[in-house]
Fold this sequence. Notes:
By secondary structure, the protein is mostly beta strands. It has helices at 4-8, 61-64; strands at 28-33, 40-45, 50-55, 65-69.
Amino acid sequence: xxxxxxxxxxxxxxxxxxxxxxxxxxxxxxxxxxxxxxxxxxxxxxxxxxxxxxxxxxxxxxxxxxxxxxxxxxxxxxxxxxx
Length: 83
């Protein structure tokens, strides 16, 4: 049975990501909230072969996303995990 009161208080927030270096729309998967740094969300950038971090506490669009490219021509990220 659904708790309608709890669902009524839910908030949905979508964060826009910057485009790729060549202007393409970004494709990401495996969204993983950080255990060590609350407010940070890790993403696997499948269209760019990179790892991204979004600091949800930073309101400035240009400053809240950091990207670490994987330096290999055929790099493809397929998941995020934490220790």
